[in-house]
Amino acid sequence: MLLLLRYDSKTVKQPVISRATLKTGALINILRATVGARRGEIVIEVEDEKARDVENVLKEMGVEVIELIGAVVKDESKCIHCGACISICPTEVFRFDNEMRVIAEAERCVHCGACIRVCPTNALSLPV
Amino acid sequence: MKTIEEINERIREGNVCVVTAEEMKEIVESLGVEKAAKEVDVVTTGTFGAMCSSGVFMNFGHSDPPIKMQRVWLNDVEAYTGIAAVDAYLGVTQISESREDYGGAHVIEELVSGREVELRAVGYGTDCYPRKEIVTEISLEDLNQAVMVNPRNAYQRYRAATNSSDRVLRTYMGTLLPNFGNVTFAGCGEISPLNNDPEFRTIGIGTRIFLCGAKGYIIGEGTQHSPPFGTLMVKGNLREMKPEYMRAAVFPGYGVTMFVGIGIPIPILDEEMAKFTAVRDKEIVTEIIDFGVPRRSRPIVRRVTYEELKSGRVEINGEDVRVSPLSSFYMARKIMKDLKKLIEKGEFYLTKPVERLPKRGELKPMRQREIKVVRSVMTSAITVSEETTIEEAARIMIERSVNHLPVVTPDGVLVGIVTSWDIAKAVALGKRGSVREVMTKNVIVTHPDEPVEIAAKKMEEHDISALPVVDAKRRVIGLVTSEDLSRLVAR
Questions:
Q1: Residue at a domain's end among B344, B359, B385
Q2: Which of A19, B7, B46, B89 has the maximal Cβ count within 10 Å?
């Protein structure tokens, strides 16, 4: 499960992810982190069984937790099937089908956002 | 042996045999060249890629009172009007003066989609053209002419790109990940028009083509035409074009361009043409070049075939590297199929070229007055050792009136740099000791033969004001500062 964590100026200074691991025993994979002086945003991947525990621990520490359900979205009216996104995606979400159309296997998406700026026709977006 | 007249006769009669370039490969493989040449009359080829060298000539008609446009903008994108009063050429890569990620290609797309755009023009006023400015709305149907004229399209093949540097590069070849993180390539290989007629026997001046849904024509070899990197100059009526066969695009960090759809029918006049149109991706060779080197001559990383590129992975230095095309095979295929249908329905006839395209071409570099390199602007560097105290460094800076001290080993090898800011900060924090503690260790450097533009870009990107100049062994041989470079500009 993918979780988007939002920190404010208080929680940003605390080692919340390490604490969550110690308390729940869950292995947490950080996929994307933008941490500034006053606030931060981190996307983590947690095994499904322990996701609720991790969520609760983080919330207790004052972190806002949003479950990411939607993955990368491809606007079919904009996509011209060039494939510029294919080699950029770290988890190989994009590939050609038999008709040489670019298809997105969104369940593999880890919300890194690398593909969004690469698309020449602005066909990709990440909903939160 | 067949003639184009005979093929056109078959189109008229409705019994022409048209196949796509993809189908032709299979036919030749199973029937052989001789039989394939007899059975097949026309092979359709296609490509759909970003073609920056494209644009549209427009005539706006005269206003009342009339204006001789000195400058003209369409939706704030400037078009070239250094021709007659109300003629202009809008290039696809011209960027908007007010809107991000918008340019000439977008304006053309809006016009073809039937939308209005704002025209704004200024003139200097003459007895015959007294008006000095105008702002109005125009649509495609308001124009007298709108002719797409593209100086360089349909590249036969193109050099693929990769990046050896340690940072992400945003290029016209798309986004290139650091440390050979990916490869990008353009062109459609075995289905692309010029690869199916490499001797330019049937593709020449006057050849009727499919251009963005319209019937267009080849008007000559394209600029930079140098077979096997052949190119075409083409024209077509924008009014007949369909938005689905063109697309405005933005390559982040590079700018605006346009995906242009081109289809070319190739008459199978004889066995040689059948053999040409049977060409396979594995026979089409190009090179992967390294965009990590920001020079005109970029190093060749390796030779590669379109078959390897299209497989999605190529090997570089023993590693499997993922590949992205930048042309759309889906759209190229669609164009081949659509052109095939047009010919079968008797809506598209073939033409014999009135002139052949040159089989050779030379791609010359620009004649430059000089290429200014760092060596010619660098000054001698005043270096210090790591043991130099902060006070001593401060004293040297004041005495020699410099702001940067490269820190070197006894052999002169660069290990760090201290700036007057580092020293001021150390003093403010009450730090004592040697420069080792306050110096920057990860130093951005330049080389004596690096062009000054590259050195300037490094300073700008890293927000620094000087670069130590080092030799191949990283020994400091000089220093170049932003003041040295601005003096160059001011001169």
A1: B344
A2: B46
Distance between A31 CA and the closest CA of chain B, angstroms: 18
Shared domain for B314 and B165, answered yes or no, is yes
**B178 and B296 within one domain:** yes
* CB < 8 Å from A in window 312-331 of B: 312, 321-331
Mean pLDDT (whole number) for B417-445: 91
Q: How confident is the model at residue A128 (pLDDT cuts 50, 70, 90)?
A: low
B241 lies in the same domain as B383: no
Flag whether B365 is in a domain.
no
Does A5 have pLDDT greater than 90?
Answer: no
Segments forming the whole domain that contains residue B216: 4-52+149-344
Over the stretch A53-85, which tens digit does the pLDDT of each residue have?
A: 888 888 888 888 888 776 899 999 999 999 999
B188: annotated active-site residue: no
SS (H, E, C) A11-40: HHHCCHHHHHHHHHCCCEEEEEEEECCCCE
Is the separation of the CB atoms in B423 and B468 below 8 Å? no
Same domain? For B423 and B297 the reply is no
Stated pTM of the model: 0.83
Q: What is the dihedral of CA B366, B285, A103, B320, to 10 degrees?
A: -100
B333 reaches A (C-beta below 8 A): yes
Q: What is the mean pLDDT of residues B313-336?
A: 97
**Candidate list B17, B52, B128, B212, residue with the active-site label:** B128
User: CB-based contact (8 Å) between B171 and chain A?
Assistant: no
Q: How far is CA A102 from the centre of its chain?
A: 21
Select from B98, B122, B143 the last residue of a domain: B143
Q: Are residues B333 and B296 in the same domain?
A: yes
Same domain (yes/no): B78, B217 = no
pLDDT at site B412:
92
**Which domains, and CATH codes, for chain A?**
2-68 (3.30.70.260), 71-128 (3.30.70.20)
Which one, of B301, B323, B303, B300, lies nearest residue B181 by Cα?
B323
Task: Say if B394 falls within a structural domain.
Answer: yes
Query: Which of B101, B321, B324 faces A84 most closely, judged by CB atoms?
Result: B324
Q: How far is A116 from chain B (nearest CA, A)?
A: 10
Instruction: Label the pairing between strands B55-59 and B145-153.
Output: antiparallel
d(CA B85, CA B125): 11
Examine the domain organization and report whether B331 and B453 are in the same domain: no
The count of CB pairs under 8 A between chains A and B is 78
- pLDDT on residue A31: 83
Quote the CA–CA distance of B251 and B253 in Å, as a whole number: 6
Q: Tell me, what's the pLDDT at A39?
A: 76
pLDDT band for position B489 (50/70/90)? low
Write the CATH number for B474. 3.10.580.10
Q: Where are the beta strands (DSSP E) in B66-191?
A: 71-74, 77-79, 87-91, 117-122, 133-138, 145-153, 160-162, 169-171, 174-176, 182-185
